[in-house]
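Predict the 3D structure for this chain.
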Amino acid sequence: MSTVQETRCRALEQIAETKRILLAVEHTLAHKTPVLLLITSATRGEGKSLTAAALAATAAGMGRRPVLAMDLNWYQPALHEFFGLQ
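Done. Predicted structure below.
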């Protein structure tokens, strides 16, 4: 498999996993409207912003409800970078 194909395959796997996580969260909530979904960890570099961006983009793409993603890291925000913003 070429590098491009491997990259595409990994990206599709990540998209599928993100959808699986989002659907599991929705199922757990039993069709209640969530007020807040907080993504956190104890250390830097574990993928919090990536996970938040992926879940927000997936939820928005599914079009079930409006989505607001907020990065509350005042000193080193990163969420905007995943959406191509400055």
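The two ends are 35 Å apart (CA to CA).
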